[in-house]
Amino acid sequence: MEIFAHRGASAAFPENTLLAFEQAIVQGADGIELDVQYHPDGELIVLHDSHLDITTNGQGAYDELGLTELARLDAGNQQKIPTLAQALAQINGRCAVNIELKDAGVAPGRLAAITGLLKQQLEQAIVKENYTWSHFIISSFNHHLLAAVKQKYPKIKTAALIASCPLTYSEFTRALDVCQLNVSIDCLNAALVNDAHDRGLTVGVYTVDRQQDIRRCYALGVDVIFSNAPDKSRDYLKTI
Ligand code: G3P
Ligand code: CA
């Protein structure tokens, strides 16, 4: 079972910052999960919430500020809000990267803007840094956006995020052509994991920090857990 650092090593360092990503690598994470928002100035930034107050010293919606103003904010421990390009440069292919697209929009123009920027940045990272395509997996709760990513970029791996418990998984996963389901620990069950595996899908589970949850994921054959404390989760996993 692989361990991905959820928002970086976010239990001990400010989430979704270059520091948290670096420390995730130090802690031996197999991959890093990060959250990406589309900024209308034409940039992808790494930020979980649409409001700045939650994780920075800024206020209001992030897209009410320009990129220069955003770059001045403190995201904790003197860290900045990174752009996706900065995050990828920092990680530099040293582990896998699960890029979660946070955008909920479905307007064709917006989907095209996001998928175009994403394609450009991943291609750039592969040319300039130590990545191959297999390093990346794109996830989203917005399945319209996932479909648009896949249409633009058939070779990229995608994962459908689900936070509720659908009765059946078959039709939507086939239509989306995802290779993984990323599910909340709250709707994890054996039938879901077995059904996904029967369809050739891997299963990721978020957010898994408690020992009983790690044990349960392992027993059910989960492929990836997203943990805020990859070091502690790994230590515990070794004892099972
Ligand atoms: O990608 C898994 C998980 O991060 C989804 O929920 O709210 O932590 O982004 P959230
Ligand atoms: Ca996330």
TrEMBL record:
Residues 1-237 form the GP-PDE domain. GO terms for molecular function: phosphoric diester hydrolase activity. PROSITE patterns: GP_PDE. Signal peptide: none annotated. Gene3D superfamilies: Phosphatidylinositol (PI) phosphodiesterase (3.20.20.190). One of its GO terms (biological process) is lipid metabolic process. This is Glycerophosphodiester phosphodiesterase. It comes from Thalassomonas actiniarum. The lineage of its organism: Bacteria, Pseudomonadati, Pseudomonadota, Gammaproteobacteria, Alteromonadales.
